[in-house]
Amino acid sequence: MxxxxxxxxxxxxxxxxxxxLGVAYAAPAxxxxxxxxxxxxxxxxxxxxxxxxxxxxxxxxxxxxxxxGALAGVSMVIGSVVAPYPVVAVLxxxxxxxxxxxxxxxxxxxxxxxxxALGLPLVGAGLSFDSVGSAAGMALLMLAGSVYAWLVSxxxxxxxxxxxxxxxxxxxRAMLVYGVQIGVAGAVAAAIGLALGLDHPGWACTTAxxxxxxxxxxxxxxxxxxxxxxxxxxxxxxxxxxxGPSDGVRALLVVVALAGAAATAGSRWYVMPFFSTxxxxxxxxxxxxxxxxxxxxxxxxxxxxxVALALAAAWTVPRVAATVATARRVRRG
Length: 333
Known about the structure:
Number of helices: 13
Helix content: over 70%
Structural class: mainly alpha
Largest sheet: none
Shape: globular
């Protein structure tokens, strides 16, 4: 398999260098997990964004991982702020989707694509927190994890990688339609989760926003990849929990998850949800192994719900928008 250090992305890329980087990322969480598995797993979740974005070729660009961690944390806090107010939460998800999509179509808005790819889904994740304080605590972990990851990454050598061509700015109307599309999917997912009183009402919303893509073919790949990855990660986490693992086994789990996430960060297949689900469910199951079936069903069920809503919105919204545009042209003509 080609290395993820290569500009060519294979279906399942692997980099031994980034595997070592993931082990280094996992060091603090692993040490803590030996004494307190719950805190160790929480620290590991805090480093996940850094492991997911991969390793930029130049050291100067690696500082950007701190911004990724900060954006992830702020997004979750926003979700937690509106979570107690279901109507406000649903409208907020929809409005943010449309606003961020519109910003992507404005030249020079460099943070807009990152906000769409990471920020919006984590606003959905913030809906699952019990309080703003707990979300702020996780946000601080993510910021601290990203700072630590940046410092660690400076020890890795720079690489000569050809600069990719600049991406053209998408058409404003197309992005507005796409914003409405993901806004509908995310808002409906959030509404269902909140209305049903699920333990984690934001999981379906997060999935809907993570798998959505402007091109339907790309969305299908994400939908299948996330569904299979979450299923596998949930199953493994529950099996390990039911086996009654020692603190040492949970510490090893931290290393395996973060090292695997970093090593496969360049993959074209959507494998990251396997590692994130493995860590998140393992954290939930610490001291609560008897509810493994419940957490498995909720994680997988909400993932499939989010995928279904993203697919439905992708089929419906562009067609409605095209019909409305045609009707307007006819009236004007």
